[in-house]
Amino acid sequence: MSTNAASEATKKWEAALGRNPHKDFKSVEASRPDYDTTRPGFTYTKSPNPAWTPGSGSSDPSVLTKQKISIDPYEEGRVPGDNYKLLISGVVPRPIGFVSTVSKDGKGENLAPFSYTQIVNHDPPILVVGFSSGQGAFKDTLQNALDTKELTVNIISEWMVEAANYCAINAPSDVSEWALTGLTQTPSKVVKAPIVAESAFSIECRLLSSTPFHSKLPPHAQTGTLLVLEGVYFHVREDALNSSKNIVDVNVLKPVSRLGGITYGRVGEGFEMPRPDWGKEVEGGGLEGLVRERGNDILQAVKISEWMRQASTKSDLLQIGARMTKLQVYLSVYGHGSGPLALGP
């Protein structure tokens, strides 16, 4: 549901954008294989190059032979739609925030998907949602959020993607997407906006701040708004949540993402890579020869820092002194800032 002005602005924007590249999408879709519901759940493979070592760079050196084309977003002849299509096709995949809001008078209910959605903090839980405002006309979702300072963000899964996509329709403001899609409302715990019952993961949110964006082109209309939200309550489907209530099972969640144009993506395969630990890498010699400064091997100073950090008694420090080479002693006194060998009383 959108305001009448926003509905007309969206209609004009879509006509100019040409988002759908197919003259007859249904015919194109009919020629494609059926959606595979028999494929196994989320599976793991090895990373692209398990033998990678520090300093090795890309696992595909041929990428360095490709030239890059540099683009000024406002170069002559370039229109905002060009930047839009470039960004949504290049910054992928993007999670989709399925946002539910209620109007200030409580009579209007709105449900719409937004792929400019992301978490940016966990303590407190903070999310951001970006809204494109066409030629300055606010969509109902944005207006409701600004008026009530409340909304819910729901994750879209495979089993509800058609319904969620239909919510992007530029319907008049007196038409509810809930009725158009057949999706089910569930009351929230602390905000007035309902959550989507079909969603396996929903977050009740309160508005913390909003930032408007204006076009750099005349007449410099407001073309977007960023909302910063605090998540105040979580709702997770029971079979998707672990016993510690801190991990959502991707096999159950089956999230979909936005790619470029009218393309969506599904999550079916991945690989794991542990986060490297600096101290272990230094101790294991994996960084030897990679970090140097002014002719002295900074790894020597780094080793001192790691040893000092792990030391808890004067005896530990004396043992560290016995392990240090003359170069390390020099660096600890003259080249390591505060002089870690000041043992104190």
Automatic annotation (TrEMBL):
Comp. bias intervals (Basic and acidic residues): 21-37
The keyword Flavoprotein belongs to this UniProt entry's keyword annotation: yes
UniProt biased composition (Polar residues): 44-64
Domain Flavin reductase like, first and last residues per copy: 89-248
Superkingdom assignment: Eukaryota
One Pfam family matching this protein: Flavin_Reduct
Entry cofactors: FMN
SUPFAM superfamilies, sorted: FMN-binding split barrel (SSF50475)
SMART domains recorded: Flavin_Reduct (SM00903)
InterPro entries: Flavin_Rdtase-like_dom, Split_barrel_FMN-bd
The keyword Flavoprotein is assigned to this record: yes
UniProt entry keywords in alphabetical sequence: Flavoprotein, FMN
GO molecular-function terms, A-Z: FMN binding
Ranges where the record places region Disordered: 1-64
UniProt family annotation: Belongs to the flavoredoxin family.
Protein name: Flavin reductase like domain-containing protein
